[in-house]
């Protein structure tokens, strides 16, 4: 089964720290992105990369090492260059969310490269000019220094959300209580509260409306109504003793 | 100047690796989140934390170490617990994007905690039950193991985007060419192409419409029109020699 994420190439240019390559591989795989290209890395393969990949070795093992950026983006339908800092001659600059949507939109026309520069200074102006779109991650203006793998994580997260949306696991749904079960609970609670002399039927104030509002907002389940009525029944029995 | 991000507490529970604490501090500061609370960390303070914080020492220096999760979330208007794995008794489960919007929406009513569990197994069910909302990051179903600091990075990124949107730097805009300047360029290009015998005026095909379409799509600037007309003029001169 192929996914548009299979058309995505993550290109890391002249990475200094092998650990960052491993952490980037892990970040990619958590989002289902698996194709890693390394342009002239300082040290690779390296034990630090394996240590930080933490199980994403399949991505590291398949990583391709190439000599130039042009080789890494050859044949791509689109290359997006990541840049934190403003550049005077940048063309189209997109926030990473829109950039990821653009990447996914192009993925059926061929490979799409996301290109990341060095830890110290990012991509050069010449390297960035090889990319049709500049992508940038919104950051704190006073401290915009994302770790390389952290930037890869955010970018791949946005690619995944752009492709599949952000549906996530949900806790299992249990059977909801019916309206008559809830009405019976309300009535039971009212009787018990009167018996407890917590509720004065001649001066009821807003107690029952508030409880009903709380029950409604909670979206009670059948089992929860049973638990609450069990508690009320036990209070009733205790008072009768 | 206070920001709703100042109401955000990032709570890391029983973190094993001090390096992850430093990387989390860096991830936070890149997004303008500065309040870090550590519940019973295995090793802190620690040189690994400082090394990975990479300049975000202000966040580490201000980090509070507490003994229990309850202390860390005391007084919060809302606590959100991060969980990758499905839990049977979870209440409201939100993808991190909606969770971040909820967090920002609550930030004017008091502090809001985002709670992260251990590297190995996340939060326990009891710890998660202390949180009013479960937040989860969409991941690859086959490999959902985000590094702790990577999860903090994605969460803080979504907090920042929820607060400030994803406006990013743009390259400076230069003066756009006027319609008559573009029309003059079209006319000049057409003359030169005829002179070059690249364009046959009796059989023009779709050459000029295609060039006009390209120029229109590019959104030509004044200076670019001048450059293109300069090239055309040089071609004209060369042919006259």
Topology:
The structure is a homodimer of 241-residue chains.
Chain A: E1 8-13, H1 18-30, E2 35-39, H2 47-53, H3 57-62, E3 64-66, H4 69-73, E4 76-82, E5 92-95, H5 96-106, E6 111-116, H6 125-129, E7 133-136, H7 148-164, H8 179-195, H9 207-218, H10 222-240
Parallel strand pairs in A: 1-2, 1-6, 2-3, 4-6, 4-7, 5-7
Helix pairs in contact in A: 1-2, 1-7, 5-7, 8-10
Q: Nutshell version of this structure?
A:
The structure is a homodimer. The first copy, chain A, is of the alpha/beta class. In chain A, about 45% of the residues lie in helices and about 15% in strands.
Largest sheet of chain A: 7 strands, parallel
Shape of chain A: elongated
Strand percentage of chain A, roughly? 5-15%
Rg over C-alpha atoms of chain A, rounded to the nearest angstrom: 29 Å
Average pLDDT rating of chain A: 93
Sheet/helix structural class of chain A: alpha/beta
List how many beta strands of chain A DSSP finds.
7
CATH superfamily of the largest domain in chain A, by name, is SPOUT methyltransferase, trefoil knot domain
CATH class of the largest domain in chain A: Alpha Beta
Low-confidence stretches of chain A: none
Annotated CATH topology of the largest domain in chain A: Alpha/beta knot
Protein chain pair with the most extensive contact, residues per chain: A-B, 51 and 51 residues
Give the CATH architecture of the largest domain in chain A: 3-Layer(aba) Sandwich
Write the element-wise H/E pattern of chain A from the N-terminal end onward: EHEHHEHEEHEHEHHHH
- Helical amount among residues of chain A, as a percent range? 40-55%
> In whole angstroms, how far apart are the ends of chain A?
68 Å
- Order of strands across the biggest sheet of chain A? 3-2-1-6-4-7-5
């Amino acid at each position: 089964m192929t996914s548009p994420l299979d058309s995505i190439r993550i290109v890391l240019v002249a990475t200094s720290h092998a650990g960052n390559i491993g952490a980037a591989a892990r970040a990619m795989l958590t989002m289902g992105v698996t194709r890693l290209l390394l342009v002239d890395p300082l040290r690779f393969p390296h034990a630090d990369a394996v240590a930080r990949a933490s199980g994403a070795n399949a991505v590291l093992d398949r990583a391709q090492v190439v000599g130039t950026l042009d080789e890494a983006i050859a044949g791509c339908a689109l290359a997006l260059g990541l840049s934190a800092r403003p550049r005077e001659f940048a063309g189209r600059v997109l926030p990473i969310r829109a950039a990821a949507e653009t990447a996914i939109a192009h993925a059926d026309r061929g490979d799409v490269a996301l290109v990341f520069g060095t830890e110290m200074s990012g991509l050069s102006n010449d390297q960035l000019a090889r990319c049709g779109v500049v992508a940038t991650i919104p950051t704190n203006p006073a401290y915009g220094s994302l770790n390389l793998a952290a930037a890869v994580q955010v970018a791949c997260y946005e690619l995944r959300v752009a492709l599949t949306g952000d549906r996530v696991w949900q806790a299992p749904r249990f059977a909801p209580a019916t309206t008559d079960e809830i009405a019976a609970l309300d009535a039971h609670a009212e009787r018990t509260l009167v018996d407890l002399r917590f509720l004065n039927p001649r001066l009821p104030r807003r107690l029952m409306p508030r409880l009903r509002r709380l029950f409604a907002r909670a979206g009670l389940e059948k089992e929860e109504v049973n638990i609450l009525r069990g508690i009320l029944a036990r209070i009733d029995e205790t008072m009768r003793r």
